[in-house]
């Protein structure tokens, strides 16, 4: 409905009481405009390194899965699938000592309980008992329920100290590709989804070798996690819905590749962009805090049953009130499901 514009005379003659009634609306409108402007600035400030994508043949090798790994688009798009026979996976040809690693990923649709898609860095093949690891794990669900995302950090084989966090998403990851990235420097690790930082781990003195510091390769896998992935193993993979297909594109390897024989790193020419990106601006940090307030469903820093004294890298503040002693969020869904599916990628930064 089109509103008639009031004349200046009408505005001048408006009673003071009416102005008082309109004041909250005017303030709300101004606040909304300011927030839109802030998000626009944030989108520019939060830009991450954009190195050229690496084709599968140039940068990766198949780990397992035979025909369950297929290349498309001249090797720039990879499909890995899970069926009754096997899952599939691939890894980078080189190991890297720090850098920026990302992929655009589209997850299996429909019933996907028990299915695990992982995008992660690890050196477990070289350091079996003292391995480092940085994880994105995507946990499937039953039909009508959403995929969940889990991140984790291990250093020097510190699997006894679980540093996992779990989140919901503000979009459907099965409808389109979304970008997931890991930024790893000598003293900081940042996980991103679609340019938005979702988690930061800062190295502390007491962490020691538990902060990942050895060369790692990049991996992508899909496999059967029926024993734990969905509701603690309550829902298993149902192969009636197989094959479960995960697609990867825009695979990026940007860091210091380590020579297997000399152990000497060879860094990308513009490696300085990583060090620039790892220092978050105030607006980026605010975006991360908004994401975590709205979408985090479990945080190890808030798990007082597991860690009565939080690990040294945890900065626990008033947000701890949002979590139960188990580390689970008090409000398991703060996202607004109906609203979520009406929002496009452009306004996904809250």
Tell me the major beta sheet: 9 strands, antiparallel
The succession of helices and strands, N to C, reads HHHEEEEEEEEEEEEEEEHHEEH
Specify the CATH architecture: Sandwich
Rg from alpha-carbon coordinates: 23 Å
* Widest sheet: strand ordering: 1-4-13-6-7-8-9-16-17
State the share of residues found in helices, binned by percent: 10-25%
| Large-scale geometry | globular
What is the number of E strands? Answer: 17
* Structural class by sheet pairing and helices: alpha+beta
Provide the CATH topology: Jelly Rolls
Q: Span from first to last CA?
A: 28 Å
Q: What is the CATH level 1 assignment?
A: Mainly Beta
Strand content: 25-35%
Keywords: Apoplast, Cell wall, Cell wall biogenesis/degradation, Disulfide bond, Glycosidase, Hydrolase, Secreted, Signal, Transferase
Protein name: Xyloglucan endotransglucosylase/hydrolase
InterPro entries: Beta-glucanase-like (IPR000757), Beta-glucanase/XTH (IPR044791), ConA-like_dom_sf (IPR013320), XET_C (IPR010713), XTH (IPR016455)
Signal peptide: 1-32
